[in-house]
Predict the 3D structure of the following.
Amino acid sequence: MATDTPIRIGVLGCADIARKVSRAINLAPNAVIAAVASRSLEKAKSFATANGYPQSTKIHGSYESILEDPELDALYIPLPSSLHVEWAIRAAEKGKHILLEKPVATNVTEFDKIVAACEANGVQIMDGTMWVHNPRTAKLKEFLSDPERFGQLKTVQSCFSLPADENFLKNNIRVKPDLDGLGALGDAGWYAIRATLLANNFELPKTAVAFPGAVLNDSGVILSCGAALSWEDGRTATIYCSFLAGLAMDLTAIGTKGTLRVHDFILPFKETEASFTTSTKAWFNDLVTAWVDPPSEHTVKTELPQEACMVREFARLVGEIKNKGAKPDVFWPSISRKTQLVVDAIKESVDKNCEQISLVGQ
Amino acid sequence: MATDTPIRIGVLGCADIARKVSRAINLAPNAVIAAVASRSLEKAKSFATANGYPQSTKIHGSYESILEDPELDALYIPLPSSLHVEWAIRAAEKGKHILLEKPVATNVTEFDKIVAACEANGVQIMDGTMWVHNPRTAKLKEFLSDPERFGQLKTVQSCFSLPADENFLKNNIRVKPDLDGLGALGDAGWYAIRATLLANNFELPKTAVAFPGAVLNDSGVILSCGAALSWEDGRTATIYCSFLAGLAMDLTAIGTKGTLRVHDFILPFKETEASFTTSTKAWFNDLVTAWVDPPSEHTVKTELPQEACMVREFARLVGEIKNKGAKPDVFWPSISRKTQLVVDAIKESVDKNCEQISLVGQ
């Protein structure tokens, strides 16, 4: 029996992030780049050249044109989030499976329309959150799920801050209300929220409340904010996201028996391996002058870069549908939706002067 | 010229923490244990024996008696916080300098009475927060104050959680409203708040607000809570403290240019050295697949355990007053007071269902 042919992916838009994902598509053993589109043929062509696309790549001078390309199984969509609802729905209607950059939409109502279109057309949708596909993440999850080493989760703290320069703060799409209007919350906060949900087995919190001190630009786009989440049984979490502070991406989870720490959870320091520290039943010596069982470090090798692992998983799911008649995997859109719900709730709390927002029944 | 004689310290109460501080007094080059008191002579005697006190140590069978001891320069007071206002004032009135366990009082009004008594009697007061005396802390401060390596502070996250067993949760003074009624907030939270203030150059926040999800026992004592603090210029902080989660004591500070992380800020993993990591102007490689300038670790040797550094500093100040006519150092009570103010504000926010509490004008 012949091996399944690689999934053919088109890149809809030449955003900066598409450079990295293009390389990832090339690296994934079960996917190939088959086309690229920009609003101008010139731009698409030079993007393809600059990123070492195969000669065979079809170059499209409009988004409409790539949607019609009959040779594509799937589209990677790195457009500004305000355009997702239009182009993801159109892609689904053309029967294209969708790898969609985050934030998946400007609010959950829009995302629900996208998911409905995907369901109606039997296509897979997955968002572009790369770190969850790093093999390290499975190890984190293993530790967090271990009643002996970690116990029951009590709190998670996660943050992603990165220092934007003046040009970014003036011109980047992530600070424009009509492009990526969720700003630092939709961009950096997305990862912190996803990490928090992952640690909580994707159970939605009961409430979200923004901290005082969110920073917004003149157009009302969030440049920096923090929030607390709380669950029915007393679990809590904090997230912090910012375009105005030094680079940090920390995840700390504290359980009844153990702790987990990651300092590069979104993008590991190195491409080929990723570390984390754990401690279990740590305590002090008799006089409380030093620790017994302090944290220890663990390192996980990564054969493929995490973004290529993401593409491999996406292409695997598409292959199951295409070649074996499987149904689209609902796990991925369900966690996109939950992440978006928490983004929306925190945004609402920021807008309402730190009011507590309920997520019950969402 | 003869060297000054060591400062003679009496230990008022045989709390568990007094074991460690007794050893620290013995280790400090400029202090000696000269007396110990308990409510029973027997208990004081067996405590002195168990902790290797010098033969010459005077044993007192009541708190009143040690106050009258004319040979003592100072008292270390590890009593439950509800007793501080009485015994610290009585000690001050007897002209004894005071090393006072934290939390310094059950609220700032009480602490102000203690400080007034110390001022009226010209005695030094310092609280028993040990970690700030670790030589590492000066190095942390150096980094946080460096405009090139750290830039301007944007946020601080600090936590101290420790898992209390059933016996603790039933019987320990830290869960009794009439003894250490501030519970985990006054005990564990104290350290997290102090760290936050230290990173903010001891500038009080504008507001404090508790997170939803505080856990209180049947008597209304806080077993676990979190809070956000915010400053006028947009700096923010979160603190988390708990008796119900695994051991963790993390401090993360993010500035415009750099980050600082400490995982054992209250009690270093080892007694003889303490580490922290910093990063400065960290960023990604061109394709954003790895970090350039990831965090690096720094280790600081400690000649003396941090609690002995604390006693040494306290004894030095007392020596300056006793031998050189210096005035008591107001820095230490001022930071105790600020820490207590933030404790009080968070407690008030917990009591008022997460209302924002203003600290302006305090």
About this structure: The radius of gyration of chain A is 21 Å. Chain A has a mean pLDDT of 97. Chain A has two domains: 7-130+307-328, 131-304+340-358. The longest helix of chain A spans residues 331-351.
